[in-house]
Structures are given as structure tokens and as C-alpha cells.
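User: Predict the structure for this protein chain, please.
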Amino acid sequence: MPLVTCPDCERSVSDQASHCVHCGRPFSAQSRNSFETVNDLTRSNPVEVPPALNAYFPVGLLKFVVLTVCTFTVYELYWAYKNWQRVRERTGENIWPFWRAFFAPLWSFSLFRRIKEDAAGEEISAAWNPTLLAATYLLWTALWRLPDPWWLLCLLTFVPMIPVVDTVGELTARSPAAEGKNDRLSGWNIVAVVLGGLFTILAIWGTLYPVP
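Assistant: Here is the predicted structure, written as C-alpha cells:
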């Protein structure tokens, strides 16, 4: 039985009804015809509603770099967690996003490969080797064991991740979702930048100019 939408309560009723069975609004023959016309147009021209989330967690490159440095690379773990969380929701795989983020350097081999393959599926040129970048990232995270002041190089672990984050941005532009590009700092991001940035500056200063 064909249905139309009542303009008052927006619930579905029969197109032959003399009134809305839900709210009581009376229908004339002219109003029923207009309902049918609107419903026919809707069925023939469905509105494409973008998904709520992208396949991967998007973040603006500048935002990613700033938050990574100001949080002593903790933001990289958050980025990995959000991506593994979306992989699990999208594929239904039995994975633990928290532990894959906790051991992000080890699981970066798999994550970078997935992003590269999905980019290729969208015909996006990603001229980087996922294994090489993951290996570089893994080795770079071990630089914190170096003596002063060379351990400060571990703050630059975002360098091998730049091509990956950039490719995720291209995937987001190709199939945009309602969440947007995520390239602006939120209130919590600003707090992290101010407090974390101050702590980072103090750590760098104390390393380069230790108190005798």
C-alpha cells in the first residue's frame, strides 16, 4: 500500500486515507496528490547523505605535527587508536585498538599498508613504501634512549608519518564525511598545545642548558 507523509506529524499514512491516523489532520484530494508528487520526487531523486565518519581518522597535517610535538608524541598514539577503531568498525575484525595503539610502532606496518592499499583502490597516488616508512618510524621511536641532547630527536617521530597522514587527507577529500577534515584545533587541543608546549620548551631548555 503506497504511503505518504503527513506534513504535521511527519509520520507515514496511506495515500487513500481521509485524515492522518496519528494526529488527525484531514486530507483533501488535492493535498493527497501533492503528497504523492513530493514522495515520487523523493524516490526518483534520493538525497545522498554523507557518512558520519571517514574510513580513516583525518587530521590536518599542521595540527598533527603541532599536537605530536606538544604532547611528546602521545598524539601519535591517539591517531593510531582512532584509525584502528575505525578499521574494526568498518571490517568487523576482532582487533583491540587500544593495544594496537599502545604498540603503535610495531602495528604501523599493518596500518600503513592498509592505508596505502585503500588509496590505490581510490586511484590516489601514494608514492611511499609502507614497510620503509613503518621501519623508519619504529627505529625513530627508539631514539629516546640516546644521551643528551640527542634524545630530543624522538620528538620528530612525526616525520616518517607525514606521507601517511597526507594520504589519509586525500582519502578524506575523495570521500568526505560529515565530520570534515579535522584541521582546526578544538578547545582541548588548545589546552594541550599551551600546557604541553610549555613543558616541551622547558624539557628542551633543561636538556640543552642543564643547571650546573
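Helices lie at 29-44, 61-70, 74-91, 97-102, 104-121, 130-140, 162-174, 187-208.
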